[in-house]
Amino acid sequence: MRGAVVTPTPTRSRLAVALCLVLAAASGVHAQESSTLTSEEIEHLRTEVQKMGSSIQTMSRDLGRELAFVRDRLSLVIATTFLTSPPLSSDVVGVARVPVFGPRIEAETSRQRDALNVRVKRYDASGLRQVGNDIEVGSGQLQAVLPVDQNGALYVIEWWTSEGYTYSVQLRDGASELPVATVQVRPLQNKGRFFYVAYRLEQ
After folding, report:
1. 5 domain residue, yes or no
2. How far apart are CA 11 and CA 4, in angstroms?
């Protein structure tokens, strides 16, 4: 009859429940297999990523060594070019025309003067790089040893002091103790530079 309600029998209800349980169990098995497979794939990918990371680190170290070698070679080329045709010196810019071993800077102490400040920089492929901290040569101090972090490279000293004094400043070779360049400090001339190619003096 139209509009009649069909009431499920107990047998049909039991069959429906049993079918749902079977389907749920089957879905659980498939989900477990899929989860196991995904974990294996993730572990495999993790292993591959670790291998790639190790390879990249090795390549980075090799590339770093090669770049350092290239920078050193370029620094030597810069220094060789400088020694081949060095610029002229002046009262405020001292130029060493020969290599300097164990460089030292010396400020005249026979006259009254203030502290002399010194900053050492090195030329490389990327430009100027400061070497060590600024150095102060006190009013009663004769000389100071200059840092050398790469043999055969071109260095520049930036020096400055207070105004109103007159004395000479020398760049000296540590091996021979001879001056290789000299500049003059005067009342209106209180800063300048030195240029030189340096080598460490092995003790």
Report:
1. no
2. 20
- What lies within 8 Å, CB to CB, of 167 at 6+ separation is 107, 108, 110, 111, 113, 184, 185
pLDDT classification of 164: cutoffs 50, 70, 90: confident
2 assigned to some structural domain: no
Q: Which residue, chain included where needed, has tokens 């010196």?
A: 89
H-type helices in the chain, by residue range?
10-84
Looking at the domain assignment, is residue 1 inside a domain? no
77: helix, coil or strand? helix
At 37, the pLDDT band (50, 70, 90 cuts) reads: low
Residue 157's pLDDT band (boundaries 50, 70, 90)? very high
In the chain, the largest separation of any two C-alpha atoms, in whole Å, equals 131
Structurally, the chain folds into a number of domains equal to 2
Q: What is the DSSP code string of 178-189?
A: -EEEEEEEBTTB
Domain-located, residue 133: yes
Boundary residue ending a domain (40, 63, 85): 85
Are the C-beta atoms of residues 169 and 106 closer than 8 Å to each other?
yes
pLDDT digits (tens, 9 = 90+) for 102-129: 999 999 887 788 899 999 999 987 889 9
Helix (H, G, I), strand (E, B) or coil at 42: helix
**What range defines the domain where residue 77 resides?**
10-85
